[in-house]
Amino acid sequence: MAHAHAHEGHDHDHHGPDKGIMRWIKTTNHKDLGTLYLCFAFIMFFIGGLMSLVIRAELFQPGLQFVDPEFFNSMTTMHALVMIFGGVMPAFTGLANWMVPMMIGAGDLALPRVNNWGFWILPFGFAMLLSTLFMPGGAPAGGWTMYPPLVLQTGNAFPMLIFAVHLLGISSITGAINVVVTILNMRAPGMTLLKMPLFVWTWLITAYLLIATMPVLAGAVTMLLTDKYFGTSFFTASGGGDPVLFQHIFWFFGHPEVYILILPAFGIVSTIIPTFARKPLFGYASMVYATASIGFLSFIVWAHHMFTVGMPLAAELFFMFSTMLIAVPTGVKVFNWVATMWRGSMTFETPMLFALGFVFLFTLGGFSGLMLAVTPVDFQYHDTYFVVAHFHYVLVPGAVFSIIAAIYYWIPKWTGRMYNEKLGKLHFWLSAIFINLTFFPQHFLGLAGMQRRVPDYNVMFTDFNVVSSIGAFAFFISQFIFIGNMLSCMFGKRDGKVPERVWEGAHGLEWTVASPAPYHTFEDPPLVGDNGEPVAAGQTAKAH
Amino acid sequence: MSSPAPANGQQRYFVPDPSAWPFMLTAGLVTLIIGVWSSLEDKNLGPLPYYLGGGFAAFVIFRWFRGIALESEGGKYSKQVDMTYRMGMAWFIFSEVMFFGAFFGALYYAREVALPWLGGEGAKGVANLLWTGFEASWPSNGPANLGGYYETVSAWGLPFINTCLLLSSGVTITFAHHALKDNKRLACILWMWATVAFGVVFLYCQAVEYIHAYHALNLTLHSGVYGSTFFMLTGFHGMHVTLGTLMLTVITIRLMLGHFKPDSHFGFEGVAWYWHFVDVVWIGLFVFVYVL
Fold first, then answer.
1. What is the average pLDDT across B48-71?
2. Which residues, 6 or more positions from B12, have their beta carbon under 8 angstroms from its beta carbon?
3. pLDDT at B10
4. Are B16 and A7 an interchain contact pair (Cβ–Cβ within 8 Å)?
5. Measured between CB atoms, does A236 come within 8 Å of chain B?
6. What is the 3-class SS of B204-222, one letter each residue?
7. DSSP secondary-structure letter at B130?
8. A-B interface: how many C-beta pairs under 8 angstroms?
9. Are residues A11 and B18, on separate chains, in Cβ contact within 8 Å?
10. A11 and B2 in contact by Cβ < 8 A?
């Protein structure tokens, strides 16, 4: 699929990428930027993971062992910010960079320079955010939700926290605009909306959510900034404001944000399961509509994060019922995944294992979410480890497993080298076991009344905390298998045996190009047929 | 890279060469931010980061947009690229709408929830226990009378004039657009300068109003939630008008340099969209901040 050979006398002005570090600083290529996004995300996963180990080490036994409470709170706060804004979101954006143009038959993203900007904001933004660890007064310790008045007590770090959030917001918005415009404007002829792979669909809706909500977060943190330094009183009752106002604005962003963190995962799983079940996705259209419904509902459920704050009864009821409604489209999705596998000719390669782990464990997290949605019950669970268990179930064996699955699934296409299947399977089983060891006991801890964001606890919680901490350390160590496997894919010897269609059950445009995919794919768009693949091989410049 | 026509006769999508502008822009912005941080936290870095970061960022933005204008005038953009810019601008404006939405939402919440509750409504009047005897009203600087006695700006003085100015500017920019489409370039340029003038006069009036509010009315950012919402909403709008006026000026200068064609002038239209957006936000401000 070397496009360059296809056009007689095609006089390239570009001679491939620059050399050395300048290639990565100046690149406008979606594959380069996708790689940068993914590498950045993994550095952030590592840093955020170390922070979580500080938390788990401190919670290994009751009493204060290693860190003082202020630093403990910094760790919980920074762990969340790093994992959400530095880990999961950039990882998904990296996958979108790599895959969306290849999946819809576009040459690149619509706005390549803006794409570069969106990436290069991130290292600067996180340098600012992480620099707060070394500032007088310490890193932000008021929780990633930044509730006033607590967060206003942050020391020198406070403006850096706010401006870092602003920068990350700009990065997300530019990235999202790029994805939306690419999908709406750059599809190859014949690639109609309802022929797009689900990963593209879910990213389209994710990008919409990002454009709609990141500016709202920017507004909220701007109000924090002016409240602290310029004498405004948005969140001060004595001036007629209300701290609860912040929670409303924050969660108007925050709830769509949690779907931003999971919708691309749905797309990945919907891509992988049909490949290894060797059947087309069951209920494609219903998947699209379910995703859109989740996107819509995400805007009218935010106050379920605030049931105990003192809202009117009518609001509690409204947000309870609207939240429970989300179980319907999510149920449609889980049903479709299971129905896709029904009587499929299944094999269990590593990507499939992670996808199956996702379906099972994400659904568990969904069920605990349903429990939390019930207002009177939430009064009991609020701010306990039950909540921690819930959102880690949807984020780690949910979002993170899907990212890992996607990388195992597509890295042969990216690098032209196959990963080690045995190590991959080992990585899955260790991850699946230890992630449950880490988070399942936290359900019990929460139900028994252990509070989150506190470095000390009642001795009766000791046993489950020991188990949880052991699980966390083992999970972290298991990920080195993954890193090793990936590094060997990136830098190992290329034996040239990886075919265009890496998985024989896989369908879609990305499997019609060479492995590794050429630096520029689809400079001339292919004509896409009903099966989502090029109609005439000649027109898509099949090599030679 | 160039875009030679492929076999099917369509122009190939323009993919720009590698560029260091985005990286440099970020470096400039972060330098600026460090300057702001040092001011807010008394770190005595002085004004140097402001000049260095701000100046550098402005330089990069100028060069980046200049490059885009040259690419556009050089005929590198196909219809499809044009559509990319249209969609990109539309979604960007949507994100701006949501940003203002946060502040309008805060205004709504303060008036309809926070203050009434402080005055004893809702949740068994519990919020009123903090400030017994406080009665909710609007405008309000809260139960503690933050910032002391103040008066509000009347809607029917300068704000009304400003409304007329912005609405007129919406008309003049439409005249300019029609002139451009009819290839009457001089008329277009004159209508554009008229639009710029409306923007500048608007900003002057806003400045006069702010000075009046601070000195004669004692209405400041410290005047409780009324002062907060008033200055933050009008202030952010004012920043957008400033940016919009700058954009209009650039477009007008480009017109004078002979840029844009009757059938191809998205740079012009994008700025016009932005200007209309700023206009619509002002209508919202006039109704919800000044009149009601």
1. 96
2. A107, A523, A524, B3, B4, B5, B6, B78
3. 59
4. no
5. yes
6. HHHHHHHHHHHHCCCCCCC
7. T
8. 240
9. no
10. yes
The mean pLDDT value for B247-253 works out to 97
The dihedral region occupied by A274, where left means phi > 0, alpha psi between -120 and 50, and beta the remainder, is: alpha
User: Can you tell me the distance from the alpha carbon of B133 to that of B120, in angstroms, rounded to the nearest whole number?
Assistant: 9
Residue type, A439: F
Question: What is residue A28's three-state secondary structure?
Answer: coil
What is the rounded distance in angstroms from the CA atom of residue A215 to the CA atom of residue A201? 22
The pLDDT score that the predictor gives to residue A16 is 65
Taking a C-beta distance cutoff of 8 angstroms, is the pair A339, A293 a contact? Answer: no
- Is the CB of residue A38 less than 8 Å from the CB of residue A95? yes
A219/chain B closest Cα distance in angstroms: 6
A215 touches chain B (CB under 8 A): yes
ipTM, two decimals, is 0.95
Convert the pLDDT of each residue in A318-349 to its tens digit: 999 999 999 999 999 999 999 999 999 999 99
What percentage of chain B exceeds 70 in pLDDT? Answer: 96
- Asked if omega into A112 is within 30° of 0 (cis), the reply is no
Q: Does B225 lie at the interface with A, CB-CB under 8 angstroms?
A: yes
Q: What percent of the residues of chain B are helix, what percent strand, and what percent coil, each to the nearest 5?
A: 70, 0, 30
How many other CB atoms are found less than 10 A from the CB of residue A422? Answer: 10
Q: Does B95 touch chain A (CB under 8 A)?
A: yes
pLDDT grade for A9, boundaries at 50, 70 and 90: very low
pTM, two decimals, is: 0.94
Calpha distance A51→A418 (Å, rounded): 32
Q: What is the pLDDT of residues A51-72, one digit of tens each?
A: 999 999 999 999 999 999 999 9
How far B214 CA lies from chain A's nearest CA (Å)?
A: 14
Nearest to A240 among B80, B126, B140 (CB): B140
Task: For residue B78, give the H/E element and its range.
Answer: none
Ordered alpha helix ranges (H), A155-197: 157-185
**Per-residue pLDDT averaged across A81-105, rounded?**
97
- Burial class from Cβ neighbours inside 10 Å (0-12, 13-18, 19+) for residue B273 reads middle
Which residues of B fall within a CB distance of 8 Å from A523?
Answer: 6, 12-13, 15
Cα–Cα distances (Å) from A183 to A191, A204, A206, B14, in that order, read: 10, 7, 12, 16
**Average pLDDT over chain A, rounded to whole?**
93
Contact A28 B103 (CB under 8 A): no
- B129 to chain A, any CB pair closer than 8 A? The answer is no
Q: What is the pLDDT of residue A15?
A: 54
Running DSSP on this structure, what letter comes out for residue A537? G
Q: What is the DSSP string of A289-353?
A: HHHHHHHHHGGG-GGGG-GGG---HHHHHHHHHHHHHTHHHHHHHHHHHHHHHTT------HHHH
User: A198-228 in b/e burial notation, b at 16+ Cβ within 10 A?
Assistant: bbbbbbbbbbbbbbbbbbbbbbbbbbbbbbb
Token digits for A89? 């979101």
* B172 in reach of chain A (CB within 8 A): no
The residues of A assigned a catalytic role are: 79, 108, 144, 171-172, 255, 257, 259, 270, 304-305, 330, 333, 452
